Amino acid sequence: MPTKTVSLALGAFLLTATSTLAREPLAAIDWLNTAPPVANIPPTLLQEPPVAQSAHGPDITVTPLERLLPPVGLVPEARTGLPITLWQGSPADQLAALIRDVPVYDLPAMQSLLMTLLLTEARPPFRDDDQILLARLDRLRELGATEPVQALVQEAGPTQSPARFDRWFDATLLNGDEERSCAALTADPYLMQDYSARIFCAARRGDWPTAALMLETADALSLIGKQDMAILDRFLNPDIYEGMPPLPLPASPTPLEFRMFEAIGEPMPTTMLPRAFASADLRDIAGWKAQLEAAERLTRSRAMNPNQLLGLFTDRKPAASGGIWDRVEAVQRFDTALNTQSAEAVRKTLPAFWSAAQAAGLEMAMADLFAPRLAKIKLDGKAAVIAWRLRLLSSEYESAAATPPDQTRQSRFLATLAKGEPASDLAASPQEKAIVRGFAQESEMPAAQNLLLDQGRLGEAILVTMKSFSHGADGNLEAAALSLAAFRLMGLEDIARRAALQLLLLPRGS
To answer: Is residue 140 within 8 Å of residue 99, measured between CB atoms?
Structure first.
């Protein structure tokens, strides 16, 4: 019928047409060109100059006469200690694969180093075609760092390609900041081929008639699958489906599906979803327990600043007992004890606090948070040993090395390692002996990394060494020794010491 034909034609126009005039407002949207401050920038490791006595690198760097692409990153090179030429010289596809795949699970020093590499300001390689930026964004999302994903792509320019926009749109959905991306999509619908996103954004800005018309047209033209049609129909017409059975949950939901299920009153639990979805539980609309569980999950991957976790842990009194509530109580009691500066109060609360941190895999976060205050409390016995080992896991490991709690062989070996000179006569286990080899003065740069450094491929050399260290942590002691030596000879002494200490103090990392 004519009315239907006109309706479909108009809907098709809304779905596909974008005139030159429709693109012009993008230049007027100021925040598209400026990345806003990010509240949750994870801490980076390389904030001080390297302390190694030797560093490998050619005296002269030869740069091809090609157009230099602008550097992109959230943390300046002055803070990370990494040059903006970090990625240049490497084949983009090979480098992107390393960024996406380098294993860091349960290896806190490697997690922090990877986060530093992903966030540092650096130029992409020549002939990059956006591969490195997209790989950085994908790995940040995999780690759960959705706020840095949003900020990084906003700095680079989220509307310059559909691939960038896809990642930005997903991040804004998980961060509860979709007004930004929806405004850009409304101005330029060609940024996404997903009609569900266009319909969602139309409804999000309150234009329900346009959203309904686009849904009708997309259905008639078979542009949306049945599952998405069912969600969108309930999203746009909640009254019609009141009292109806819930929809089946998708096995691998997209951030858009996640938010639409939430909007129709059928929120998905995030515990079984990829880590990036945990970010959605940090919003104010989530309950305290969900926020705590999400914060723990993100802190374990080093995607969240430990101070934010502590803020949630101390926000209010535990609502119940058992599980996470026992951890909250243990942290609060220990925090209170430290505030009183009473050695007796700390002695009583420290063991339960540390056991709770170990059970949740939060040793590194708690060490970062409490080591400075704990260093001021004089303890003895079991509490002194726990406190000392906690401090060895923090950035204050070198000052802790000066005051071991006892003179056992293990404590003396840990103290020498923290000083960067692990004593061979104190090394007993095969792992300790491998660490000694990695710190030996006569150790040499492995051949693979040596070749990469000769070619000016520093970032790739670091990633290759991280991959080697993961094999070392899994039991390949020769790989452990070689990777520790490589870190030190590249000037990453702090990384080497902290990684070695974590191998000995944490059960396969944290």
So the answer is: no
β-bridge partners, 120: 75
Would you tell me how many other CB atoms lie within 10 Å of the CB of residue 23?
13
- Rounded distance between C-alpha atoms, residue 372 and residue 389, angstroms: 13
Yes or no: say if 44 and 77 are a contact pair by the CB < 8 Å rule.
no
Contact 299, 306 (CB under 8 A): yes
Is 388 in contact with 410 (CB distance < 8 Å)? Answer: no
In single-letter form, the type of residue at position 15 comes to L
Q: How far apart are CA 269 and CA 273, in angstroms?
A: 8
Identity of residue 464:
V
Asked whether the beta carbons of 495 and 55 are under 8 A apart, the reply is no
Cβ-count burial of 39 within 10 angstroms (0-12 exposed, 13-18 middle, 19+ buried)?
Answer: exposed
pLDDT at 32: 34
Q: Measure the CA–CA gap between 317 and 238, rounded to whole angstroms.
A: 37
Q: Spell 402-412 as b/e; 16+ CB within 10 A means b.
A: eebbeeeeebe
Q: Which residues pair with 122 in a beta bridge?
A: 72
Tokens of 471: 């094999």
Could you list the mean pLDDT of each consecutive 10-residue stretch along the chain, which spans 510 residues?
A: 38 39 32 44 54 44 63 94 94 97 96 98 91 98 98 97 98 96 95 94 94 94 92 93 91 96 94 96 93 97 96 92 94 97 97 97 98 97 98 98 97 99 98 98 96 97 98 97 98 98 82
Residue 447, CA distances (Å) to 50, 456, 497 in order: 22, 14, 22
Farthest CA pair distance, the chain: 92
Contact present, 92 and 131 (Cβ < 8 Å)? yes
Q: State residue 243's pLDDT score.
A: 85
SS3 120: strand
Question: Which phi and psi (to 5°) does residue 120 adopt?
Answer: -65, 150
**Residue spans of alpha helices (H) in 120-239:** 131-143, 146-156, 162-175, 178-187, 195-204, 208-220, 226-236
Task: Supply the pLDDT for residue 507.
Answer: 79
Residues in the chain: 510
Decide: pTM greater than 0.85: yes
| CA atoms in the 13 A half-sphere facing the CB of 372 | 4
DSSP 33: S
* CA–CA dist 81, 49 (Å, integer): 6
- Number of Cβ atoms within 10 Å of the Cβ of 2: 6
Angle between helices 208-220 and 195-204 (to 10 degrees): 160
